[in-house]
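Colleagues,

For the teaching module next term, I've prepared a clean inverse folding example: a structure given as tokens, and then the sequence designed for it. I'd like students to try predicting residues themselves before seeing the answer, so please don't circulate the second half yet.
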């Protein structure tokens, strides 16, 4: 019974293949009949979410589980219960898996200490978001024609991740999987949104043009407006000028360059409409692939 805590511990090749099987199955029957089990999968979402939560809910339904969504406001957390006691409580009721999104880095590891059911990290603070990285990898794997996933199939590819690297769990988990697959990863952020120490195996720059130049893939990240309040970003106008992924900046990349964004996107800030909705955008493919990947991960975690 495996937990899914960090991207580093995922059996990537197996999960890509399982996700692809889900894609084929759902292409043949978009709403397949299911065999419902008398079993719950809990989704503890202590931070807002649209696509991650919807994808995990759909994954649970596809596997015949009933998804039980619990938010901080609606649960005993609001009465002072600790995360570990919540996890013990759900275990005592025979829960099959717990999907956890939490504002604190490391929360899924604490949960895993007291859980017999698998814990699936759906984002912990600014730390990791393994299933997002896996769905991003799956999206690229499809785009590049399903190369052998056991090889370094992204070698020779330049991938630029541009935005608030400091607070991004998406960047951290992606860095792990992309470099494992052989990609050259560039992390680009304004000086105040760089991580405290350089992240391993990545090029770091403040210069978005340098990051995007000759890139095969550009991944834009959401600029959290709360960072403005913390005084980490002097102005959104300056951010747009220096870091926005817009058609002019994208022309520096390879003509075949694809654009990704984990969502939610803030149109007109980190990315323009033309790019987000353009032919080079993989953004909605990422959202769709999120369902296949969550089904694959939940299936693997509950059935192996
Ligand atoms: C991200 C998250 O919550 O980590 N979104 C997601 O899960 N698709 C990124 C973000 O909030 O900017």
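(Answer key — instructors only)
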């Amino acid at each position: 019974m495996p937990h899914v805590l960090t991207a580093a511990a995922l059996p990537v090749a197996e999960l890509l293949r399982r996700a692809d099987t889900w894609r084929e199955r759902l292409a043949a029957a978009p709403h397949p009949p299911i065999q419902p089990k008398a079993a719950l999968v809990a989704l503890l979402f202590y931070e807002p979410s649209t696509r991650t939560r919807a994808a995990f809910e759909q994954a649970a339904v596809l596997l015949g589980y009933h998804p039980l969504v619990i938010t901080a406001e609606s649960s005993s957390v609001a009465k002072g219960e600790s995360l570990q006691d919540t996890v013990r409580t759900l275990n005592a009721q025979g829960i099959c898996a717990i999907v956890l999104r939490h504002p604190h880095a490391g929360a899924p590891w604490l949960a895993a200490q007291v859980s017999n059911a698998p814990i699936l990290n759906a984002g912990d603070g600014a730390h990791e978001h393994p299933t997002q990285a896996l769905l991003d990898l799956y999206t690229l794997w499809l785009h590049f024609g399903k190369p052998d996933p056991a090889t370094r199939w992204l070698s020779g590819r330049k991938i630029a991740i541009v935005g608030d690297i400091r607070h991004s769990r998406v960047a951290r988990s992606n860095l792990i999987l992309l470099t494992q697959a052989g990609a050259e990863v560039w992390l680009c952020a304004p000086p105040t949104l760089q991580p405290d120490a350089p992240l391993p195996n990545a090029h770091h720059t403040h210069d978005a043009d340098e990051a995007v130049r000759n890139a095969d893939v550009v991944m834009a990240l959401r600029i959290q407006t709360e960072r403005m309040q913390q005084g980490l970003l002097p102005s959104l106008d300056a951010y747009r000028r220096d870091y926005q992924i817009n058609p002019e900046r994208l022309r520096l990349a390879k003509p075949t360059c694809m654009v990704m964004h984990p969502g939610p996107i803030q149109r007109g800030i980190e990315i323009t409409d033309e790019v987000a909705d353009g032919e080079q955008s993989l953004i909605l493919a990422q959202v769709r692939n999120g369902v296949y990947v969550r089904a694959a991960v939940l299936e693997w975690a509950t059935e192996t």
